[in-house]
Amino acid sequence: MNTFQSVVRRFGRDTRGQAMVEFAIVSLLLLTIMISVFEFGRAWNIYHAETDAARLGARSAAVADPTTTQDSVYSIVRRALARDAIDTNAVTISLSGWRTGTGTPVTVALQVPYTFVFLRPFMHWTNAQAAITLRSTFVMRNE
Predict the structure, then answer these.
(1) Nearest 5 degrees, angle CA 4-CA 6-CA 9?
(2) Greater pLDDT, 132 or 112
(3) Distance CA 20, CA 102 (A)
(4) Which of these ranges, 83-87, 103-107, 120-124, 138-142, has the smallest mean pLDDT?
(5) Which bin fits 37, alpha (ψ -120 to 50), beta or left (φ > 0)?
(6) What is the pTM of this model?
(7) Mapping DSSP to helix (H, G, I), strand (E, B) and coil, where does residue 35 land?
(8) Would the pLDDT of 88 be above 70?
(9) 15, 71 in Cβ contact below 8 A?
(10) 108, exposed or middle or buried, with CB in 10 Å at 0-12, 13-18, 19+?
(11) H/E element holding 112?
(12) Which residues, 6+ apart, have CB-to-CB distance to 81 below 8 Å?
């Protein structure tokens, strides 16, 4: 047997780097899952803050208070969003059913753009967009 064949056989049975290669493959998968869970959690948090702001706005619009104006409803929604560190300049607020009569619905609808933070650099590899729009609507009856 020549030395070349013995070297090839020895490397064929050598498993010293196997764990490092497996760790490199699995760590990429785990890191991707962890970042995705973090991004989903951030979007879910913003969605809940948006829903709470819509509820506050609908409640203030539904209460029969003569001092409440449409501008004050918008202001209440913007303050609630600002408390949760959401940029209020990019938010779309719509109010319908304002003072249409007792028992009729008043609706506050919000649209908040959400941009992925950690996944954004990888989004250009796919056809997916780096931003989505989170929508929330809250309906209450006018008092």
Answers:
(1) 110
(2) 112
(3) 69
(4) 120-124
(5) alpha
(6) 0.77
(7) helix
(8) yes
(9) no
(10) buried
(11) strand 105-115
(12) 49, 50, 53, 88, 91, 110, 112
